[in-house]
Amino acid sequence: MSAPKAVQPSTLIMALKAGGFLVGSGLGLALAWFCGFLYFVATLPDRVSDTASHTDAIVVLTGGSERLTTGMALLEGGLAGKLFISGVHRGVDLPDILKLARTGHPDTVGSVVLGYAADDTVGNAAETAAWVKAEGLTSLRLVTGAYHMPRSLTEFRHVMPGITIVPHPVFPDSVKSREWWRWPGTAALLATEYSKYLAAITRHWFLPKKASSP
Asked: CA nearest 80: which of 158, 147, 150, 135?
């Protein structure tokens, strides 16, 4: 039986260099991700910066009763003439929505439109864009969770570059974004949301922006 060939020193050195490069690159990417995550969390909205501008419509992205309650309150407050709720589950109708929102003024319920086509944020943007175009609208107030607002704005502005979008974040009690490190559930939620936000930005680098409607 022949003896195994010895590994050449040059080959071993090259392998060690390649391994070191991969480890270093991985650590560098992890550090960049973490620094970006800290910036992302620090810059999440902590208040509604524009509470008074009137828009053609209010758009609520489903995902919590606070969003629905806020959207209905804005509609009843006269900040828009229409309310579009995107991402409603099949089988859920307007009475169910009003029950969740704990409201339902008879003068405004006729202005509420439910959208059933969206399953995620990309779908929310596409569904809303189709409705906005069909209605001939030029502005909207977007209601969603504060942690979800950066990605939502990224998706909405990508498909509706000519539409004025006023962000209106809500702040669920269950999301402790200012002390996220003390709450594992919030930390996991924010980390996941940040990763999705990065994926959205990266995807849009390779996708052409839709042209503004004339």
From this structure: 135
